[in-house]
Amino acid sequence: MSIERSERSERPTIVLCPGGPMLVRGEAVVQTQDGATHRTTRPVSAICRCGATSRAPWCDGTHKLLPKERRPD
Amino acid sequence: MRAPLPAPRGAVSKRLLESLLGAEDVARDVVDDESGPERDPEDDALALFVLHELHYRGFEGVDERWEWSPRLAPLRHRLETDLENDLRARWLASGATVPEAGAAGGHDVPTLLAELVAAEDGPSLARHVQRHATREQAESLLRQRSLYHLKEADPTTWVIPRLESGPKAAMLEVQFDEYGNGDPARMHHRLFEDGLRASGIDAGYGRHVDEASTEVLEQNNALTMFGLHRRLRGAAIGHFAAFEATSSVPSRQLSQGLARLGFPPEMCAYYDEHVEADAVHEQVVLRDICAAVVAAEPEQLDEVLFGAWVCLDLETRTARATLAAWGAA
């Protein structure tokens, strides 16, 4: 039981994926550069970090089509 | 109405389908066709698909007791053993390299899986639909995809009880999203059903099995086999990872292609949903499911990579066969 508890307590709510998006767990409202707000609708959401998504602010997998040096750290 | 039984494609499926029309408790053993050592891959694939469907929604007019009938067990065992042996032989022959297990610090499982996915360079049905497919071809593809998409996420759900708490919680996060986050109208298999209906295609469960190619049947069979066998849990999550990791970009291409062909917004919406959803699922499955399982059970690494390779290989075979049938290869 104690292992399970500590696992849960250390579970991150925001995760930066190498070369990919930022994962956000739970409900959040994201404000984009244009001032528009977007409410998350999933248990986990992926926010674009490469700037190439066609569905901002959400990741659409486009980072995988970019050369490695243009992907986020 | 439940799914109708499909038409037989050879001696094995004919004997099976005839048996299923009778009551389970008075039936004779459904023995394998022993007419010779020659196997017919199409006949075998349909027979295994039918056996697996007894675990999902069943068939109209078929006694539900057949699902766990010992009379079917020998045939199912033979078909699954043959399928697994074929897949493992192809995986070994593919030359895909599996790193030595037990290296200090363990393996970067997400990177290994991402590299396996990136190395796959087979033809893409999504790209063909995006730019070149006819309406007739796209409709045929949707009907064949309906074998899986109308039970989307269900084969993977079998794996949940086999996982420890960490990966289990992560899988539930993904599956809850697949199942519409509690809203039946947002359930992915329901989105596909709505899309088919709006496109004028029969959206009933199991209506298009007769049209499915051997390759499409094998895709479904491998997925269900991985889900139903605890022993194959590593392959099941590896398959899940590769499936989610190869979904976002092709879903965008399919949505664009279907819009180009004048399909209704409901059909495109199914694929639009997958552009975003699977970009999330990919990350969660790679890191919180596959990496976590391998960290706890390092010997599962080979199995995870095997499952991922099977997903990629079967999709490539389906794409080749479909494009060839369309004269587009």
TrEMBL record, chain A:
<dbReference type="InterPro" id="IPR018967">
    <property type="entry name" value="FeS-contain_CDGSH-typ"/>
</dbReference>
<protein>
    <recommendedName>
        <fullName>Iron-binding zinc finger CDGSH type domain-containing protein</fullName>
    </recommendedName>
</protein>
<keyword id="KW-0479">Metal-binding</keyword>
<keyword id="KW-0001">2Fe-2S</keyword>
<dbReference type="InterPro" id="IPR042216">
    <property type="entry name" value="MitoNEET_CISD"/>
</dbReference>
<dbReference type="Pfam" id="PF09360">
    <property type="entry name" value="zf-CDGSH"/>
</dbReference>
<feature type="domain" description="Iron-binding zinc finger CDGSH type">
    <location>
        <begin position="34"/>
        <end position="69"/>
    </location>
</feature>
<keyword id="KW-0408">Iron</keyword>
<keyword id="KW-0411">Iron-sulfur</keyword>
UniProtKB/TrEMBL annotation, chain B:
<dbReference type="InterPro" id="IPR016084">
    <property type="entry name" value="Haem_Oase-like_multi-hlx"/>
</dbReference>
<protein>
    <submittedName>
        <fullName>Iron-containing redox enzyme family protein</fullName>
    </submittedName>
</protein>
<dbReference type="Pfam" id="PF14518">
    <property type="entry name" value="Haem_oxygenas_2"/>
</dbReference>
